[in-house]
Design a protein that fits this description.
The protein is α+β, with helices and mostly antiparallel strands and 244 residues long. The protein has 2 domains: 141 residues, Jelly Rolls; 79 residues, Arc Repressor Mutant, subunit A (Orthogonal Bundle), CATH 1.10.10.10. The protein has 8 helices and 12 strands. The strands form 3 sheets. Strands 1-8-3-6 form a 4-stranded antiparallel beta sheet. It has a 4-stranded antiparallel beta sheet with strand order 2-7-4-5. The protein starts with 15 loop residues before the first helix and ends in a 6-residue tail after the last helix. The N terminus is likely disordered.
Protein backbone atom coordinates (compact mmCIF):
# COMPACT_ATOMS: atom_id res chain seq x y z
CA UNK A 1 0.00 0.00 0.00
CA UNK A 2 1.39 3.43 -0.92
CA UNK A 3 2.42 5.74 1.88
CA UNK A 4 0.56 8.96 2.52
CA UNK A 5 1.99 12.25 1.31
CA UNK A 6 4.26 13.78 3.96
CA UNK A 7 4.34 17.54 4.14
CA UNK A 8 7.17 19.76 5.31
CA UNK A 9 6.94 22.56 7.84
CA UNK A 10 3.71 24.54 8.32
CA UNK A 11 2.39 26.23 5.18
CA UNK A 12 2.80 29.93 4.46
CA UNK A 13 0.88 32.32 2.28
CA UNK A 14 2.26 32.92 -1.19
CA UNK A 15 2.69 36.31 -2.84
CA UNK A 16 2.13 37.20 -6.49
CA UNK A 17 5.87 37.91 -6.77
CA UNK A 18 6.60 34.34 -5.65
CA UNK A 19 4.07 32.94 -8.10
CA UNK A 20 5.73 34.85 -10.93
CA UNK A 21 9.01 33.03 -10.15
CA UNK A 22 7.46 29.81 -11.44
CA UNK A 23 8.34 29.47 -15.12
CA UNK A 24 4.86 28.57 -16.36
CA UNK A 25 3.33 31.59 -14.54
CA UNK A 26 6.00 34.17 -15.42
CA UNK A 27 3.95 35.84 -18.15
CA UNK A 28 0.61 36.00 -16.33
CA UNK A 29 -1.15 39.29 -15.64
CA UNK A 30 -1.27 40.52 -12.01
CA UNK A 31 -5.02 39.85 -11.87
CA UNK A 32 -4.49 36.22 -12.89
CA UNK A 33 -1.80 35.75 -10.26
CA UNK A 34 -4.12 37.19 -7.64
CA UNK A 35 -6.79 34.66 -8.63
CA UNK A 36 -4.35 31.83 -7.94
CA UNK A 37 -3.24 33.12 -4.55
CA UNK A 38 -6.13 31.70 -2.57
CA UNK A 39 -5.42 28.23 -3.96
CA UNK A 40 -1.69 28.10 -3.31
CA UNK A 41 0.60 27.30 -0.40
CA UNK A 42 4.32 27.27 0.34
CA UNK A 43 6.04 24.67 2.53
CA UNK A 44 9.60 24.84 3.80
CA UNK A 45 11.93 21.83 3.83
CA UNK A 46 15.37 21.42 5.34
CA UNK A 47 18.34 20.15 3.37
CA UNK A 48 18.19 16.38 2.93
CA UNK A 49 14.49 16.17 3.78
CA UNK A 50 12.21 13.92 1.75
CA UNK A 51 9.40 15.83 0.04
CA UNK A 52 7.82 12.51 -0.88
CA UNK A 53 8.93 8.96 -1.51
CA UNK A 54 8.61 6.89 -4.65
CA UNK A 55 5.12 5.30 -4.70
CA UNK A 56 3.66 7.89 -2.33
CA UNK A 57 0.12 8.90 -3.19
CA UNK A 58 0.05 12.54 -4.32
CA UNK A 59 -2.70 15.11 -3.81
CA UNK A 60 -4.14 16.72 -6.95
CA UNK A 61 -1.83 19.73 -7.05
CA UNK A 62 0.85 21.35 -9.15
CA UNK A 63 4.25 21.21 -7.39
CA UNK A 64 7.04 23.73 -8.05
CA UNK A 65 10.39 24.71 -6.56
CA UNK A 66 10.11 28.20 -5.12
CA UNK A 67 13.67 28.32 -3.75
CA UNK A 68 16.60 25.95 -3.39
CA UNK A 69 17.35 22.72 -5.25
CA UNK A 70 15.62 19.34 -5.25
CA UNK A 71 16.72 15.99 -6.64
CA UNK A 72 14.54 13.41 -8.37
CA UNK A 73 15.81 9.92 -7.50
CA UNK A 74 14.89 6.44 -8.66
CA UNK A 75 15.81 3.23 -6.85
CA UNK A 76 16.18 0.01 -8.86
CA UNK A 77 15.08 -3.40 -7.59
CA UNK A 78 18.77 -4.07 -6.83
CA UNK A 79 18.79 -1.10 -4.45
CA UNK A 80 20.96 1.04 -6.72
CA UNK A 81 19.94 4.69 -6.62
CA UNK A 82 20.13 7.00 -9.65
CA UNK A 83 19.63 10.77 -9.63
CA UNK A 84 17.37 11.43 -12.63
CA UNK A 85 17.34 15.19 -12.44
CA UNK A 86 18.12 18.20 -10.27
CA UNK A 87 15.52 20.97 -10.32
CA UNK A 88 16.05 24.60 -9.35
CA UNK A 89 13.85 27.60 -8.56
CA UNK A 90 10.92 28.03 -10.94
CA UNK A 91 10.69 24.42 -12.11
CA UNK A 92 7.65 22.18 -11.71
CA UNK A 93 7.66 18.49 -10.72
CA UNK A 94 5.44 15.52 -9.76
CA UNK A 95 3.48 15.72 -13.00
CA UNK A 96 1.19 12.70 -12.24
CA UNK A 97 -0.49 14.78 -9.54
CA UNK A 98 -1.90 17.08 -12.24
CA UNK A 99 -3.99 14.24 -13.62
CA UNK A 100 -5.75 13.36 -10.38
CA UNK A 101 -4.48 11.63 -7.24
CA UNK A 102 -1.41 10.12 -8.86
CA UNK A 103 1.40 7.98 -7.57
CA UNK A 104 4.87 9.47 -7.31
CA UNK A 105 7.14 7.77 -9.91
CA UNK A 106 10.30 8.72 -7.98
CA UNK A 107 11.60 10.05 -4.68
CA UNK A 108 12.00 13.82 -4.29
CA UNK A 109 14.63 14.99 -1.78
CA UNK A 110 15.98 18.46 -1.09
CA UNK A 111 19.59 19.21 -2.02
CA UNK A 112 19.40 22.53 -0.14
CA UNK A 113 16.96 24.19 2.24
CA UNK A 114 13.93 24.58 0.01
CA UNK A 115 10.50 26.07 -0.37
CA UNK A 116 7.96 24.10 -2.37
CA UNK A 117 4.92 25.81 -3.80
CA UNK A 118 1.69 23.96 -4.53
CA UNK A 119 -1.32 25.03 -6.58
CA UNK A 120 -4.68 23.28 -6.36
CA UNK A 121 -5.47 21.39 -9.56
CA UNK A 122 -8.97 22.89 -9.87
CA UNK A 123 -7.55 26.42 -9.74
CA UNK A 124 -4.93 25.52 -12.35
CA UNK A 125 -7.59 24.11 -14.70
CA UNK A 126 -9.66 27.28 -14.29
CA UNK A 127 -6.59 29.33 -15.20
CA UNK A 128 -5.95 27.15 -18.26
CA UNK A 129 -9.51 27.78 -19.47
CA UNK A 130 -8.77 31.52 -19.36
CA UNK A 131 -5.18 31.25 -20.61
CA UNK A 132 -4.57 28.09 -22.69
CA UNK A 133 -0.93 29.10 -23.14
CA UNK A 134 -0.29 27.86 -19.59
CA UNK A 135 -1.19 24.31 -20.68
CA UNK A 136 1.23 24.61 -23.60
CA UNK A 137 4.02 25.69 -21.25
CA UNK A 138 3.33 22.69 -19.03
CA UNK A 139 3.39 20.41 -22.09
CA UNK A 140 6.75 21.85 -23.17
CA UNK A 141 8.20 21.17 -19.71
CA UNK A 142 6.87 17.60 -19.61
CA UNK A 143 8.07 16.88 -23.15
CA UNK A 144 11.53 18.11 -22.22
CA UNK A 145 11.51 15.86 -19.14
CA UNK A 146 10.54 12.83 -21.24
CA UNK A 147 13.31 13.56 -23.74
CA UNK A 148 15.80 13.99 -20.90
CA UNK A 149 14.69 10.69 -19.33
CA UNK A 150 14.99 8.93 -22.69
CA UNK A 151 18.49 10.30 -23.16
CA UNK A 152 19.45 9.25 -19.63
CA UNK A 153 18.19 5.68 -20.08
CA UNK A 154 19.76 5.42 -23.55
CA UNK A 155 23.06 6.69 -22.19
CA UNK A 156 23.08 4.24 -19.29
CA UNK A 157 22.56 1.38 -21.72
CA UNK A 158 24.73 2.31 -24.68
CA UNK A 159 27.20 5.10 -23.88
CA UNK A 160 30.61 4.82 -22.24
CA UNK A 161 30.82 6.25 -18.74
CA UNK A 162 33.28 8.95 -19.81
CA UNK A 163 30.83 10.17 -22.47
CA UNK A 164 27.99 10.23 -19.93
CA UNK A 165 30.17 12.21 -17.54
CA UNK A 166 31.06 14.79 -20.20
CA UNK A 167 27.41 15.22 -21.21
CA UNK A 168 26.30 15.52 -17.60
CA UNK A 169 28.85 18.27 -16.92
CA UNK A 170 27.79 20.05 -20.11
CA UNK A 171 24.13 19.94 -19.05
CA UNK A 172 24.92 21.31 -15.59
CA UNK A 173 27.00 24.11 -17.11
CA UNK A 174 24.17 25.04 -19.47
CA UNK A 175 21.27 24.77 -17.02
CA UNK A 176 22.92 26.14 -13.85
CA UNK A 177 25.45 28.45 -15.48
CA UNK A 178 29.16 29.14 -15.07
CA UNK A 179 31.38 31.99 -13.92
CA UNK A 180 34.61 33.05 -15.59
CA UNK A 181 37.79 32.69 -13.51
CA UNK A 182 41.49 32.95 -14.28
CA UNK A 183 41.70 29.14 -14.34
CA UNK A 184 38.65 28.49 -16.50
CA UNK A 185 34.87 28.31 -16.37
CA UNK A 186 33.60 27.43 -12.89
CA UNK A 187 30.26 25.63 -12.61
CA UNK A 188 27.86 27.50 -10.34
CA UNK A 189 26.38 24.26 -9.04
CA UNK A 190 28.43 22.16 -6.65
CA UNK A 191 28.63 18.51 -7.72
CA UNK A 192 30.28 16.15 -5.22
CA UNK A 193 31.52 12.80 -6.52
CA UNK A 194 28.61 10.83 -5.07
CA UNK A 195 26.04 13.03 -6.83
CA UNK A 196 27.80 12.79 -10.19
CA UNK A 197 28.19 9.02 -9.81
CA UNK A 198 24.50 8.51 -9.06
CA UNK A 199 23.48 10.80 -11.91
CA UNK A 200 25.34 8.84 -14.57
CA UNK A 201 24.99 5.34 -13.16
CA UNK A 202 28.54 4.53 -12.03
CA UNK A 203 30.26 3.83 -8.72
CA UNK A 204 31.87 6.49 -6.56
CA UNK A 205 35.29 4.95 -7.21
CA UNK A 206 34.84 4.98 -10.98
CA UNK A 207 33.74 8.60 -10.83
CA UNK A 208 36.93 9.58 -9.00
CA UNK A 209 38.99 7.68 -11.57
CA UNK A 210 37.30 9.39 -14.51
CA UNK A 211 37.90 12.85 -13.08
CA UNK A 212 41.57 11.98 -12.69
CA UNK A 213 41.66 10.87 -16.34
CA UNK A 214 40.12 14.20 -17.35
CA UNK A 215 42.23 16.44 -15.15
CA UNK A 216 43.55 18.31 -18.22
CA UNK A 217 39.95 18.94 -19.34
CA UNK A 218 38.29 19.77 -16.03
CA UNK A 219 39.43 19.93 -12.42
CA UNK A 220 37.57 18.79 -9.33
CA UNK A 221 38.08 20.61 -6.04
CA UNK A 222 36.86 19.89 -2.52
CA UNK A 223 33.13 20.37 -2.04
CA UNK A 224 32.22 19.59 -5.64
CA UNK A 225 33.66 22.71 -7.26
CA UNK A 226 34.35 21.94 -10.93
CA UNK A 227 36.43 24.05 -13.32
CA UNK A 228 36.20 23.56 -17.08
CA UNK A 229 39.77 23.93 -18.33
CA UNK A 230 39.20 22.88 -21.94
CA UNK A 231 35.52 23.17 -23.00
CA UNK A 232 36.34 22.20 -26.60
CA UNK A 233 37.81 18.86 -25.54
CA UNK A 234 34.85 18.32 -23.23
CA UNK A 235 32.54 18.81 -26.22
CA UNK A 236 34.56 16.30 -28.24
CA UNK A 237 34.35 13.73 -25.46
CA UNK A 238 30.59 14.31 -25.13
CA UNK A 239 30.23 13.51 -28.84
CA UNK A 240 32.12 10.28 -28.32
CA UNK A 241 34.85 11.33 -30.76
CA UNK A 242 37.80 11.78 -28.41
CA UNK A 243 40.12 9.07 -27.16
CA UNK A 244 42.25 9.66 -24.06
Amino acid sequence: MAAAFVSGNPTMLVTTEQLRQISIFSQLEPEQLEQLQAHTAVKSYSRGEIVFHERDRLPAKLFAVLSGLIQIKKTASTGKETILRTLATGEIFAAPALFGDGISPATVVTEQDCQVLTVERAALLALIQQTPEVALRIMVVLTDRLQHLHSTVHGLVSERAIVRLARFIQTEATEQGTTVTDQGLCLRSRLPYYQVARSIGITYEECVRLFKQLQAVMSYQRGGKILLLDPDKLNTIARGDYEL
